[in-house]
Amino acid sequence: MAYVTSILSVVILSIIADLMLSGKRMGKFVRAIFAVVTMLMIAAPLPSLLRGESFNGFDLFGQIEADENFLGSMSELKQKALSEGLVKALEEEGYRGVEVTLDVDFNGEITIKSVKVNLSKMVMDANVSHINKYEAVEGLICRYLGVDKELVELYE
Amino acid sequence: MKRLLLIVVLIFVSSSLICSVKAENQSVDLGTDEIMGSLDTDELDELLSKFGDEELSVFGYTNIKDKLSSLVRGEEGMNFGGFIRYLCDIFLNKITNIVPFIVSILSVILIFSLVNAIKGRLASQSTEAIVRLACISLVMVIVFAQIIHLVTASKNLISFYKEQMDCVFPVLLTLMTAIGPSRSAAVYQPSIAILSSAVINAIIFFALPCFILSVVFHVVGNLSEGIKLKSMADFFSGLMKWALGTVFFVFLAVLSIQGVTASIYDNIYIRTTKLAISRYVPIIGGYLSEGYNLVISGSVLIKNGVGLSGMIMLALSTLPIVIEIVVFSASLKAVAAVSEPLGSKAVCEILNGIGKSVSGLIAIILGTAFLYFIFMLLIVATGNLGV
Question: How big, in percent rounded to 5, are the helix, strand and coil portions of chain B?
């Protein structure tokens, strides 16, 4: 605003001077001087612009970050969804009451770090009761999740 | 070339965007309540609180989570009847507000014309020039008061865009990361940072001052026949248009390429993930992927809901100011048309010139809004096809 006001002031002064000196010999001379002063006023901010002083607060890059707490909650939800899905799959095979806790890394490809299975409350259907439950459950989990036996931990 | 690129971007976005947020089967619980419970929307609620009562009645809710819940349940994103009524109310309000401005300018011009007509041989050329200068100055003071109000409102709006971007994009980025890998988020994050900082600051620190200077030089150049500043005014006007056009074009081009690669990668990833979970036992594996798919689908619905809410907020903040500038520009041209037969050629030229210059302000606002809108569309569309 100060810049605009200064230019307007010079222009108005030049108009007044032009009106007062119109038709006189000094008129053209005064007009030329005011034209030069006007150009100087217009070009006045250039040095500070070139030094970059007029751009205080000009940021090129802002900070945009994801909510890590929410991402952690979502990872837990996904793990819970996979655990529940695995429990349903085991129930289909006749193994009920199994509690499964998965440790999964969802960054990039899904990587299963460990599978903990609590068999203390497990109830087997009649058609599978004669099978070694530990080997059977471990085998099913390895097959469903595509993991090695070392990652599966069974306990009661 | 620019129009062709714009058309390509719009075709891509409209073919991949799923505008409907609602679930296909509304009776199925998608677990979105649990997802929304952990989502931090305090900043969005604070942003929403800055809108007036009329805008909030169009938005429908005063709380973002309530709005998202309604969208997921299948309710309309916006009450279109209420929105049209809102626009009509604003338009009529702005016309009512501009009437005193038009009347005051016309009064000055009328008085000047009358004085000019009756002066006869009473006034010399100098007196006539002084009276003419006084008339033009008075008209310019009235016009400049409005222009300053509009430029201030525009600057506040651009700053409000930055606030909206700083609130909406982190939430969208978080949801995008939660749905898939961080690849898309990594692709978009620098562009978001540049848009919300460099582009907005370039408009505030460069484009708006160029606009003000072009208007000032145009007016000053017409104050007196001895002062010629028309080329200076055209220079700043052209500089503003060139800078804005280049920034918008480059940004849109980069964005459209990023949008294509990020979207394709995400879609492949999501489908690969679903296949990997069910690959060993296709039927039983469906149990594994079903729960996981529900979580992902719920997140996508919420992401689309946040995007839609952001677009509604953008429209509600932009339209009142754009309507005000359009009404102002139209009123200037109307006054110029009326003043021409009254003999005020200088005032007519100045008003016509300012009326055209003000369209630059509309270009700045709509260009920035369009960039923000396209960015939001791309982020909302990313990952939608894979689910």
Answer: 85, 0, 15
Does the distance separating the beta carbons of B205 and A85 come in below 8 Å?
Answer: no
Chain B contact for A8, CB < 8 A? yes
DSSP H/E element including A41: helix A25-43
What's A151's domain CATH number?
Answer: 3.30.300.30
The token pair at B207 is 């484009």
Domain that holds residue B174: 24-102+147-381
The residue in chain A having the minimum alpha-carbon distance to the alpha carbon of residue B173 is A66
Q: Which tokens belong to B139?
A: 């008209």
The count of structural domains within chain A is 2
> How far apart are alpha carbons B152 and B353 in whole angstroms?
20
Residue A117: helix, strand or coil by DSSP? strand
The per-residue pLDDT for range B227-245, each reduced to its tens digit, is 677 888 888 888 888 888 8
Dihedral angle over CA of B82, B85, B86, B91, nearest 10 = 170
Which amino acid is present at A32? A
DSSP labels for B156-183? HHHHHHHHHHHHHHHHHHHHHHHHS-HH
Distance from the B284 Cα atom to the nearest Cα atom in chain A, whole angstroms: 6
Measured CA distances, B296 to A94, B15, B27, B31, B387 (Å): 29, 21, 18, 10, 7
Cα of B87 to nearest chain A Cα, Å = 33
Q: Is residue B75 part of a domain?
A: yes
Residue ranges of A 92-111 with Cβ closer than 8 A to chain B: 92-93, 107-110
Whether A67 is covered by a domain: the verdict is no
Reported as a single tens digit per residue, the pLDDT across A9-60 is: 887 787 777 777 766 777 777 777 887 887 787 777 777 766 665 555 556 6
Q: How far is A128 from chain B (nearest CA, A)?
A: 18
Q: Is residue B265 part of a domain?
A: yes
A21 contact residues in B (CB cutoff 8 A): none
Residues spanned by the domain of A114: 73-155
Let me know whether A39 and A104 are in one domain.
no
B14 close to B379: Cβ distance less than 8 angstroms: no
Q: Are residues A90 and A151 in the same domain?
A: yes
Count of domains in chain B? 1
Q: Are residues A97 and A141 in the same domain?
A: yes
Per DSSP, the residues of B229-244 read -HHHHHHHHHHHHHHH
Would residue B162 count as lying in a domain? yes
Query: For the residues B373-377, what does the mean pLDDT come to?
Result: 86
B79–chain A nearest CA distance, Å: 31
User: Best residue in A5, A7, A15 to probe B by mutation, most B CBs within 10 Å?
Assistant: A15
What is the DSSP code (8-state) at residue B124? Answer: -
Q: Which of A19, A64, A84 sits opposite B170 (nearest CB)?
A: A64
Residue B241 tokens, joined: 């248009």
Contact list in B for residue A12 (CB cut-off 8 A) is 137, 223
Q: Which helix (H) or strand (E) holds A63?
A: none
Candidates A4, A65, A88; nearest CB to B212? A4
Contact (CB<8Å) A38/B201 = no
